[in-house]
Amino acid sequence: MILDRYYKQESSNSVSKFILKDNKIRSKKGLFLDRDGVLIEDVHHIKSPKQVKLTKDIGKFLKEAKTKGYEIIVVTNQSSVSRSIITFEEYKDITEKFLSLIPYDAYPNLILSSFHLPKNENQLKNYNWRKPGTGMINYALNLQKYDKSKCGLIGDKLTDLIAGNKAGIPKNCYIKSELHKDEAISVRNWFLKNNIPYKELDKLEDFFI
Length: 209
Fold this sequence. Notes:
Layout: H1 2-6, E1 7-11, E2 15-20, E3 29-33, H2 58-67, E4 70-77, H3 88-100, E5 110-114, H4 135-144, E6 152-155, H5 158-166, E7 171-175, H6 183-193, E8 199-201
Parallel strand pairs: 3-4, 3-6, 4-5, 6-7, 7-8
Antiparallel strand pairs: 1-2, 2-5
């Protein structure tokens, strides 16, 4: 199992942390990525590893990010576990499948997830981990001692970008996913209303421009 071999694992009924065992702090630059819609195709409450399909050129993009000195942090809301759509073990199987499709040198340094329901209807601890809360991002920033001024975030939903902005990440980037094409309007309106700069990406590689 990839997770057992390469990652230290901590989990509770509210959050999950997979930390790469070879997680020496080599860089002050962190790149925060949503999972569904950015790393893998969003199928809405994914239920099986068989549904895992990488987004276009993601392996190449992750390797390029690491070549440019970024450490990779996955920050993902996974309420499917609390909704009993999938079990925690099935969440791990889906994560395992994703990792099996990318090379080792593209593995994320951290894979963090929140199992909270919207509005914390299940009353779990650490609700700030659910985006647009900043809990996952702040956990990674504190653990890895990243320089926030050198960090970036890519998401396909407004909640991703609000979390990045609230956590002080200066480069927040939106990329359209097939499932959330209409989200672009909400993202644009929120950032314009609050007079905050952000970037829309046509493809992931545009992050480096």
